[in-house]
Amino acid sequence: MKDFKQNLHPGIRKHGSEILEHERFKSMKDFKQHGCVSVHDHCLRVAQTSLRINDTLKKLRMNLNERAMVRGALLHDYFLYDWHDKEKRKKLHGFYHPGVALKNAERDFELTKREKNIIKQHMFPLTITKIPTNRESWVVSIADKWCSLVETIRMRKPS
Q1: pLDDT of residue 159
Q2: In the structure, what pLDDT confidence band is assigned to residue 83 with cuts at 50, 70 and 90?
Q3: Quick check: 115 and 75 in contact, CB under 8 A?
Q4: Domain positions in the chain
Q5: Which end of the chain is more exposed for a tag (fewer CB within 10 A), N or C?
Q6: CA within 13 Å, CB half, 60
Q7: CA distances from 6 to 50, 105, 139 (A)
């Protein structure tokens, strides 16, 4: 996973170039997500993992909206603050950050309804009332859980 940026799935650049080039998206490199992984890199990993899941689903003849899935994955944690800073973060970050991320993403990008749903619903089942309503939301939510687990367990700061 260390060299994942050199081996990005072509779909990330194809569908996410506008997001990847945006200054606020780039600013997420300054915020840690899990272990020593930045929010920026976490979002790239979630997009990458979502596309890998999608590649498998294509073999099963399940067609997803790849553009919406990539854009939603890149923006799912677009909350733009350090959630580890107890003075600046919102309480119960896990519950509230999808709404903050959606508000920020709507300000900076033109989003489809499906992209908005992906961002808003990615924390299911923690946000029990925000059940994913489409396949892309399910895939991004699952990819987010997987990446979070790997980042938390394998990519810790050295002791």
Answers
A1: 47
A2: low
A3: yes
A4: 10-153
A5: C
A6: 7
A7: 17, 26, 23
Burial label, 22 (beta-carbon count in 10 A; 0-12, 13-18, 19+): middle
What is the second-level CATH architecture of the domain 10-153? Orthogonal Bundle (1.10)
Q: Is the pTM of this model over 0.85?
A: yes
Is the pLDDT higher at 99 or at 64? 64
Least confident of 20-29, 81-90, 127-136: 81-90
- Calpha distance 98→29 (Å, rounded): 18
Cβ-based neighbour number of residue 68 at 10 Å: 22
Strand pairing category for 37-38 and 32-34: antiparallel
Query: Tokens 């959630």, residue?
Result: 83
Residue 32 tokens read as: 């840690």
The residue with tokens 């490199």 is 29
pLDDT tens-place string over residues 27-54: 999 988 777 889 999 999 999 999 999 9
Enumerate the β-bridge partners of residue 37: 34
Estimate the share of the chain in helix, then strand, then coil, as percent rounded to the nearest 5: 60, 5, 35
Confirm if 47 and 17 have CB atoms less than 8 A apart.
no
In single-letter form, the type of residue at position 96 comes to Y
